[in-house]
Amino acid sequence: MTDGHLFSNISLGGRVGNNPGQFRLHSGGVAWKKQGGGKTIDVDKADIISMAWMKIPRSYQLSVGTKEGIRYMFKGFREQDVSNLTNFMQKNTGITPEEKQLSVSGHNWGAVDINGNMLSFNVGSKEAFEVSLADVSQTQLQGKTDVVLEFHVDDTTGANEKDSLMDLSFHVPTSNTQFIGDEERPSAHIFWQKILAIADVGSSEEAVAAFEGIGILTPRGRYTVELHMSFLRLQGQANDFKIQYSSILRLFVLPKSNNPHTFLVITLDPPIRKGQTLYPHIVIQFMTEAVLTTELSLSEEVLAEKYKDRLQSSYNGLEHEVFSKILRGLSGAKVTRPSTFRSCQDGYAVKSSLKAEDGLLYPLEKGFFFLPKPPTLILHEEIEYVEFERHGAGGASMSSQYFDLLVKLKNDQEHLFRNIQRNEYHNLFNFVSAKNLKIMNLGEDGLDGSGAVAAALQSTIDDPDPYLNGIKNQAGDEESDEEDEDFVADKDDSGSPSDDSEEEGSDASLSGGEKEKSSKKEVSSSKPPAKRKPKSGDVEGSEKKKAKKKKKDPNAPKRAIAPFMYFSKTERVNLKNSNPELGVTDIAKKLGEKWQKMSAEERQPYVEQSLVDKKRYAEETALYRGAAAAPVDVDSGDDLSD
Questions:
Q1: What is the pTM of this model?
Q2: Residue 316, Cβ neighbours under 10 Å: how many?
Q3: Among 61, 421, 618, 637, which is most exposed with the fewest C-beta within 10 angstroms?
Q4: Which residues contact 181 (CB under 8 A, 6 or more apart)?
Q5: Considering only CA atoms, which of 20, 38, 40 is closest in space to residue 30?
Q6: Mean of all residue pLDDT scores within the chain
Q7: CA dihedral over 346, 347, 349, 355, signed as positive or negative
Q8: How far apart are CA 405 and CA 421, in angstroms?
């Protein structure tokens, strides 16, 4: 390219391993983006203070130092790239990269060089290793000659899946000439104080700010959120996560439409892990109108030197705003808020469902975000095309009320957002068009919503709803139940499907409906009249049947519970807490949907509970039958089928 150089397979080095990505050196500075999306680094040339080349195994490494004391290490350059990039750097930044050599002798005796917050250990004139003092959580002086550094523990997958540096020990003899001491303060003590002044030591003991009882939807639970100087901690009853601020990509503050809650999302790269589940987004739910007053546990000197114009000593305001301001000041992450999009109800999102989970789809300035579960962030630059689809195409019920939005990514992955209300179509279509995203099923004009998409939705306005018509026909044809009060069903009739199910969705004319009713009446009239109104001689028999059916022994064993009921007992409370706006019917529907999606392994704990209960029921039934004077009802044998 004309403005700079572009490399595709360059890794970003660090304490927790290497991340491959795309590196670009241009006239304005240095940029790097993780492969597949995620973390990005953009350093302006005015912020660059040093550059250095080093030959490492199988490639070359470029080290870039910034005014903030951060040093980035990019690995994977070829030998012929070194001279080309060096000339470009000299011309555009005025900085001549120095050349360092890597010590491979294995010697562990040398000198320490502290430059900014970077500590390098040199053997002779060659560098053995380099660490960032910003990653140091604790430092201790052991005896008179040893200094131990302990590094932050990170709960992201980058730390879990790679070998991570946990501690480092230095032996500083009293005869050291670099850190000159005396009898009271030996050389190791001078070196320890030097590190103590730079490293992030002590922040793990006292949090800058703490928020208690915060409701987090993913990973679900109630947590105490502690914000430290270099990391945040989520402390729950069963889980404890520690996350470095360097893993935070962005913050999202998104109010829920017509709801007293606001989402605050922390996007991570790498994500945290809970069991086998990865969480790239921490979704926090705040009460929108909740007010909070807090003071930061930072001295005026630290605020002025390290967090000037980023933090203030105290905050008073809405809880989610206070939280986001403090976290942004400590981590330096950017905050994204709702875009200019507005729904028909003047909200910031549209209701939809993704993978059988109901939620909100937020059209943002640079992407789409589906919340709360599963939290899915889609950037516009990752989208190949979008496609509006008529919901339930092919004659399914309620197709005229909803439509679907299919988002196809450049990596061939697809996201289908279903059940979007039809009246949201024009607002969503105009917003997508304004972002210059490719829309697959546009009409011939290709300019607005008057093409094939709108026609597909508009054509359903006057279409009859077969499901609704079936209900209306059923209600209109329903007969009075007064004359059937004394009706007693035969054994052959028990459990038979209702005749009304055949009428639902039928497009028969009125005359056809009358024929069906007349045929039903004929069938009913063909039955013996004794079943309608029993004769005097049969009254006693029918009363016995009724009495026998209603009779229930209080000492009879309690029926066994089905696996789904155990699942419902466990999940109902959690579902209600995470979705307080849902009614009883909606909760039951969601429980059924979740049960259908569960695998056999996920259902196994509830199946085992049900088997234990069935065994209990069988044993109690055997004892009950043995102790009862009269035989047990035949119906009790069907309980195990539940």
A1: 0.54
A2: 10
A3: 637
A4: 174, 187, 188, 189, 190
A5: 40
A6: 76
A7: negative
A8: 11
